[in-house]
Design goal:
By secondary structure, the protein is mostly beta strands. The protein has two helices and nine strands. The strands form four sheets. Strands 3-5-4 form a three-stranded antiparallel β-sheet. A two-stranded antiparallel sheet has the order 1-2. The chain has a two-stranded parallel sheet with strand order 6-9.
Length: about 130
């Protein structure tokens, strides 16, 4: 069934805009989304982004992982999956593990139904 091993959905976040929320209890050490970046991704030079119109720059700044002057982005913003909507917190309940070019969101502790998933962006993005 389509909901098998689905733990989350999007919702209105008190942290920032749209967030990701548990629809059931999530055990500790679970790969919450499977492969986050199973969509094609690209690395884009941040200096190129600075030359784009402001509303387009905002897409990159809001959703991409920053590494120095480079931005790790979906190849097409229309293809983003739910993992791109996890908000930042200095007190996260998920962490990011990276294997090659793929990011995995792992639960740090048990997450309760209705709780927003949060990650510390500083642990994988500049």
């Amino acid at each position: 069934m389509a909901h098998h091993k689905v733990y989350v959905r999007l919702g209105r976040s008190p942290v920032h805009g749209v967030g990701v929320f548990a629809i059931r209890k999530i055990p500790k050490n679970i790969n919450v989304f499977g492969v986050m970046c199973s969509i094609p991704t690209v690395n884009v030079d941040g200096n190129v982004i600075k030359k784009l119109p402001h509303h387009i720059q905002k897409l990159y700044l809001d959703f991409c992982v920053r590494r120095g002057d480079m931005l790790y982005c979906p190849q097409n913003f229309n293809d983003m999956n739910i993992g791109w909507y996890v908000n930042h917190s200095s007190n996260p309940n998920v962490r990011v593990d990276q294997v090659n070019q793929e990011l995995y969101f792992m639960s740090i502790r048990r997450i309760e139904k209705g709780e927003e998933l949060l990650v510390d962006y500083n642990t994988y993005s500049d």
